Amino acid sequence: MPRTGPFATAAAMIKVAQKAEELGYDAVTVNDALSWSFDRRYHFSAGTKEAMDRTERGTYAYEAVTTLSFIAGMTHRIRLIPAAFVLPWRGPIMLAKQFATLQELSNDRFILGICIGNIEEDFKNSNVDFKARGAITDEYLRAIKELFSNKTVVDFHGKYAQFRGEFYPKPKKAPIWIAGGFREAGLRRVAQFGDGWLPIGTAAQLRLGLRKVKELQRTYGMEEKELEVGPQVFICLAETDEKAWEIGGETVKKFGGLPEITRLKPHETGFAQMNLIGSVTEVSKRISEYKEAGANFVELKFISNTLDEMLGQISLFASQIMPSFSHDY
């Protein structure tokens, strides 16, 4: 949904969420960021660089929990996924309470997507140590698991979080999806804590990453459970590959150069190869590659010049591509 970017309004998010539910999509997603400086305006999940350049302000960035709560009340079936909450500057107790409340009020449609965070400015503004974000995330995940346990009194004492008391409501379903790249620490986090995985990378990276996750599950004595696996991708869908690149090329180029993306070392594969830019035929082929690598879900971030164009791509994907894959979900 356009939580940030040139189309970021309440009306636009309602329209996108309700259209997605009507067309049979499985979920709507939002990203998570705090930064409000003008030079951060290109960190969006819906729109184009050109559309952003036409605005006279920096991108709006609606708060993710509030946004999903709002959308929960505007929909009936569709799942609600943060892709993903930056756990280190949110804190485990408040986020666990928000999640448990949302589960209760949305009929268990919420998934707790988390990541360690990748925008250093957000950590400075939150007074959280950017370099310690991995260790903080691991401890907070253990804390959340403890809060969601069947224990009447929860007693947790860690380096970054301490609490003792009763925690209710206990969510009946508490799926945790881990977002991130393919570094050892991130894959270990998926193996230890994840019910799902939201990687950013190519199909080839996904195949190798899943193999490593299974090895790590064995190493840490974890149950080798089946994960929901959903790569995060930008998509621009048009009548021809050339038209899609005409619409989305500058945005892919700009986004691929953002510091939070270059940390993922996209030069090793090419950022364009991590995304779905092209015709129905090309995009279907690329999704098949992700499916064969182990994905059963894809998070789609639509590159479009207007909200109407975005809604058109959402409809085109639903009618021309989704039927080929929907039986897998």
Provide a concise account of the structure shown:
This protein is 44% helix and 15% strand. It has 13 helices and 14 strands.
| SSE series | EHEHEHEEHEHHEEEHEHEEHHEHEHH
Estimated helix fraction: 40-55%
Shape, please? globular
In this structure, how is the largest beta sheet organized? 5 strands, parallel
Tally of domains:
1
Radius of gyration equals 19 Å
CATH level-1 class:
Alpha Beta
Q: Please, how many helices?
A: 13
- Widest sheet, order of strands: 5-6-9-10-11
* Beta-strand percent range: 15-25%
Average predicted local confidence, pLDDT: 92
Give the uncertain stretches in residue-range form.
none
Computed structural class: alpha/beta
* CATH topology term: TIM Barrel
**What is the architecture at the second tier of CATH?**
Alpha-Beta Barrel
CATH superfamily: Luciferase-like domain
The number of strands is: 14
Calculate the terminal CA-CA distance, rounded to whole Å. 20 Å
